[in-house]
Amino acid sequence: MLGLESGDASLEQLRDKSATAVVIQVGTSVFGVLVDKVFRTEEIVVKPMSSVLRHVSMFSGNTILGDGSVIMIVDPNALASVVGSVDAQAELAHAASLDETKVEEGRTALLLFRAGSPILKAVPLSLITRLEEVSSDAIEHCNGGDVVQYRGMLMPLVYVQAERTARDSGVQPVLVFTQAGHPAGLAIDEIVDIVEEPLTIDLQAETPGVIGASIIQDKAVEIIDVSHYLGKLFDQHRARAPEDAERELRLLLVDDSQFFRDMLAPLLTASGYEVTLAASAEEALGLKNKGERFDLIVSDIDMPGMDGIAMAERIKADPNWGKTPMIALSSYSNPRLIEKSRAAGFESYVGKFDRQSLMHALQDCFKGWGAAA
User: pLDDT tens digit string along 287-333?
Assistant: First the structure.
């Protein structure tokens, strides 16, 4: 696409070798771009193209890195035009059946890595803010733990195994999580891969920090309990209820999956909520019939028996629970399902692994709660 003389030669080499592809989504069009090598991520300031180069449609601008080198920025829309019309792709996507959509969206993007042992570990990619490589010389010991200066702030580092320490030399791979604007890093040994697989827990685990084991690409992989580490990483920056709140807000979490209840409950508790768990819509409505009252309800949409939408309709019709704010959780990002959930009474619709969007939705409910109070 860049018109380089080496392009044809690269295609010939691919006949007998594997290649690196960067997957790009523009609108509903998803395509891969073959590249020679991936270096790292960068946050940049986009500068306009020189008038001499504006006729080159494949580039949208350029930037200057910290070392002074000038980097051209490829325009994803120009690449998409080579693949085909984005509008045509959208029409095809809209015409696809719901079952086909669910099969595709039932897969979860996972980061595979090693930390503390040769055993593969995984964490949902959507929970991670950034992947960084920190120079070992930049890691300092402060306040009883390792920290690194990160974007003008001190970022604490924790390790999957407590006895592990930072590397003596070279670079330290770090998974960066962010909550309420505060970064914290999980130091690991190496990043192995990013995959999209159905996330199914085959074996439950009793080890702290591990939810269970799953088969991913024909290998046994430990699924890391992110909330276990989030509680440590953000211990000093926990989100609290509004200053004018005289008590903890009671939150009802409804989900038929033990995996998601185990993942979200510690995070919500660490954020200052009094959390009650329900494994089904029927169990949640049973609490309503017993006279329980909650300030917030977070519920899965896709549950066996009575689903979350039917439950929401029952709740909104109740004089005692009808004004309780509700947030919908789902593994599927289907526009019709989103519209249907809002019509049933849910104020927000959040992906199950989208921790940041969930916390933002809860904060929006906080504002409404404070106004109502």
Answer: 999 999 999 999 999 898 999 999 999 999 998 899 899 999 987 77
Please state the φ and ψ torsions of residue 326, each to the nearest 5 degrees. Answer: -130, 140
| Residue type at position 46 | V
The Cα 111–Cα 113 span in angstroms is 6
What range does the domain containing 273 cover?
239-372
Sheet hosting strand 190-198, strand order edge to edge: 190-198, 107-114, 120-124, 219-224, 210-216, 203-204
Give whole-number Cα distances, 32 to 10, 69, 170, in Å: 15, 26, 32
Query: Is residue 178 in some structural domain?
Result: yes
Tens digits of residue pLDDT in 146-158: 889 887 888 888 8
What lies within 8 Å, CB to CB, of 171 at 6+ separation is 133, 134, 135, 136
Please give the model's pTM, rounded to 2 decimal places: 0.50
Tally of CB atoms within 10 A around 57: 10
Instruction: Let me know if residue 102 belongs to a domain.
Output: no
- How many angstroms from the chain centroid is the CA of residue 334? 17
E strands, 36-106, where? 59-64, 70-74
In a domain, 364, yes or no: yes
Alpha-carbon span 28 to 83, nearest angstrom: 12
Out of 233, 254, 274, a domain closes at 233
Number of domains in the chain: 3
Angle between helices 335-344 and 308-316 (to 10 degrees): 20
Task: Take residue 194 and report the two structure tokens written for it.
Answer: 């990013």
Q: How many CA atoms lie within 13 A of 35 on its CB side?
A: 11
CA atoms of 166 and 182, how far apart (whole Å) = 21
